[in-house]
Amino acid sequence: MAKFLIIDDSPDDRELIARTLKKTVSFRNAEVREAEHVEHGRRELEGGEIDCLLLDFSMPGESGLDFLVDIQLRFPELPVVMITGEGNERTAVDALKSGALDYIVKADISPDSLEQAIGKAIEKKHQEVEIIRHAHYDELTGLPNRRALFNRLQYLEGRAPRGVPPYAIVFMDLDGLKQVNDAMGHEIGDRLIKEVAEQLRVCVREGDLVARIGGDEFVAILENLTGDGIKDSDIATARFRESIDRHLFDFDGKVVNAGMSVGYAIYPTSSKSRSDLLAIADKAMYADKQARKELAKKAN
């Protein structure tokens, strides 16, 4: 069953759109959620799967047009139809340039026009998603890549003036990949990277991000941390490390011992600068790697 979210500050207009949606052929049984302002709508989007957003152009506070910019960064696979009371060409151009996939004037809403706009938006978004996947996801692991990581950081940086809960940037480096490639071949090395990616994927909460940014390098962004973020970050980094250190990697009888060096930085505790946070997390990860090497030497 399709799920729609209507964001509009007018209760009457929300009711009109919802009622019209129920009269369409394709979406008469759809689940329809409503939000009276952008922040409420953002919480709805963060809380569950939405198949299409019907967004009012002009609202008090953060407008629908402003919200479109955030949507492109935070919910890049979400089809958006802009709905407005203004029927001028300038409004349509602004909406489409900002990321809406179709545009409909409230006075012109009918079951047919709404169904056509939604269908067009969903089809366009499916086509866009395929292009986005190639550009923003790592081919080997399916994880977000460096570009996707920096898009998320850009989104968080853009929200900072309005207030952002603490978040952590976690750098992770897979220990021993070169030795595996040299001793067992790159095919086993690639299988190791893929399985490590799966282990890391299950360690993050829904809404957090873990990306592969290089051969043996991974980065996670952990959002909405409590307090100063240190306790949450310590727990998360221990979970990342243990998920690799304690996992048995067995590839057709070839057992690989792998480990993970981890370091993090927290916004705003460590710094408010994105470049500083990245540098601090990277430095902490290398310090962890050196400490692990020293422990291994002593153990041997």
Any overview of this molecule?
The protein is an alpha/beta fold. Helices cover 50% and strands 19% of the residues. The protein has ten helices and eleven strands. A five-stranded parallel beta sheet has the order 2-1-3-4-5, with helices on both faces. The longest helix is centred in the middle third of the chain and has 26 residues, at 111-136. The chain is elongated. The mean pLDDT is 91.
Kindly list the characteristics that best describe this protein.
phosphoprotein, 2 domains, Diguanylate cyclase, Rossmann fold, 300 residues
Quick structural overview:
This protein is α/β, with parallel strands linked by helices and 300 residues long. 50% of the residues lie in helices and 19% in strands.
Count of DSSP H/I helices = 10
What is the correct CATH architecture of the largest domain? 2-Layer Sandwich
What would you give as the CATH superfamily of the largest domain?
A: Reverse transcriptase/Diguanylate cyclase domain
How does the major sheet shape up?
Answer: 5 strands, parallel
Structural class: alpha/beta
CATH fold category name of the largest domain: Alpha-Beta Plaits
**Oligomer classification:** single chain
Kindly give the count of domains: 2
Instruction: Provide the helix percentage.
Output: 40-55%
**Gyration radius, to the nearest Å?**
23 Å
% residues in beta strands: 15-25%
Keywords: Phosphoprotein
Modified residues (4-aspartylphosphate): 56
Domain GGDEF: 165-300
GO biological process, one term: phosphorelay signal transduction system
